[in-house]
Amino acid sequence: MNTQIKLRGKPHRLAVLDYGLFEVHAGPRTIGICGFVIETDAGDVVLIDTGFPAKYAEDADAATAQDALGSFGRVLSVTPDNLPAAQLAKLGLTKNDITLMIQSHTHIDHVGDMAGYPQAPILISAAERALPRPLYWSGKQAMEWPDRDYHLVHEDITIGDGFEVLHCPGHAPGQLAFMVHLPQTGWVLLTSDAISRASEIDEKFAGSWDVDQAILHGDRLMALAAQRDALVIYGHSPEQWPDLKKAPDWFE
After folding, report:
1. Comparing C-alpha atoms, which of 202, 231, 227 is closest to residue 215?
2. Cβ neighbours of residue 203 under 8 Å, at least 6 residues apart?
3. Rounded to an integer, what distance in angstroms lies between the CA atom of residue 56 and that of residue 84?
4. Contact 131, 124 (CB under 8 A)
5. From CA 39, how far away is CA 160, in angstroms rounded?
6. Could you tell me which of 165, 182, 183 has the C-alpha nearest to residue 174?
7. Are 40 and 160 in contact (CB under 8 A)?
8. First-to-last CA distance in the chain?
9. CB–CB of 84/50 below 8 Å?
10. Strand partners for 22
C-alpha cells in the first residue's frame, strides 16, 4: 500500500450514476444512491463508489433481512439497470475501462462492487482501510478487502490538475469528498456523505460517527464551495436527486 497517485490529465467531464432509490424511515425521506465517473483529457477513467451489493437487485427483501437494514429504511428500487456495469454502459464504458477506483467511505450503499475492478488501484482513506473489514452496515462488516494496490489518504490531496480529494471524517472515520474542475461547468463539489443533503447542516449532522468532525468539515466544504462558486452535488439529497442530470448525460 502506498500514498502516491497522479492522474495523467485534467478532468474534462463528469457523470452521475444512478444506483437506485432508498427510503430512510426518518422523515421519511426518499434518497438517491449515487456514484460518479470522471474522465480526463488523457484517458483516465475514475469511478467513485459502486452502490449496493448486487444481491439487492436480485431480492431486495432477502438482502435487507440478511443485512439488518430494515431498521434504518427500505430499498425502493435497485434493479440490474442500477448496477455499475449497466450504468457504465450508458456512458459507453465497461468495468474494464476504469483506471482508478475511489471509495468515498465503505458503508453498504457505496461499497457493493468494490471488488469488481481488479485492474484498478483503489484510493481510500487510511483510517477506513485500517479497519479489519469495510464498514458495511450494523456492525456486520460482511465484506473482505479486495486484494488491490491501495493508495491511502491521510489529508487533503490533489491527484491531478483540477481534481482534489478532501479528507472529511465525521459521517464515517474515513469519509472523503471531492472537488473537480470541469472546462465549462467550473468547480463541482461532490460532498458524498460528508454532507448528505443541505438540511443536514442545520440538523448539525445528528447520528454521524463523529458529530463535531462532521460539523467542522461540513462548514469547511460549504465555505470552499462558496469561495469557488462551485456546483454542489450532495450525497443523498431528496430535493436535488430527482432533477439531477445523470448518465448517459455528462457535466462538461
Report:
1. 202
2. none
3. 13
4. no
5. 12
6. 165
7. yes
8. 33
9. yes
10. 31, 75
pLDDT-above-90 percentage for the chain: 96
- The model's pLDDT over 58-99, given as tens digits with 9 standing for 90+, comes to 999 999 999 999 999 999 999 999 999 999 999 999 999 999
Residues 135, 172 contacting (CB under 8 angstroms): yes
Q: Which residues on adjacent β-strands are paired with residue 46?
A: 38, 100
Cα dist from 186 to 163, 228, 251, whole Å: 12, 9, 10
Could you please report the per-residue DSSP string of 69-119?
Answer: -TTTEEEEE--GGGSHHHHHHTTT--GGG--EEE-S--BTTT-TTGGG-TT
Rounded Cα distance, 223 and 112, in Å:
32
Secondary-structure percent of the chain, ordered helix, strand, coil, rounded to 5:
25, 30, 45
Gap between the Cα atoms of 168 and 177, Å rounded: 7
pLDDT at 138: 84
249, 207 Cβ separation under 8 angstroms: no
Give the Cα separation of 161 and 224 in Å (integer).
17
Whether residue 188 contacts residue 230, with contact meaning beta carbons closer than 8 Å, is answered with: yes
pLDDT confidence band for 3 (50 / 70 / 90): low
Lookup: cell for 226: 462558496
Contact criterion met (CB below 8 Å) for 182 and 160: no
d(CA 134, CA 113): 12
Could you tell me the three cell numbers for 141?
A: 462488516
Cell of 160: 491531478
CB atoms closer than 10 angstroms to residue 206: 9
Peptide bond into 53 cis (omega under 30): no
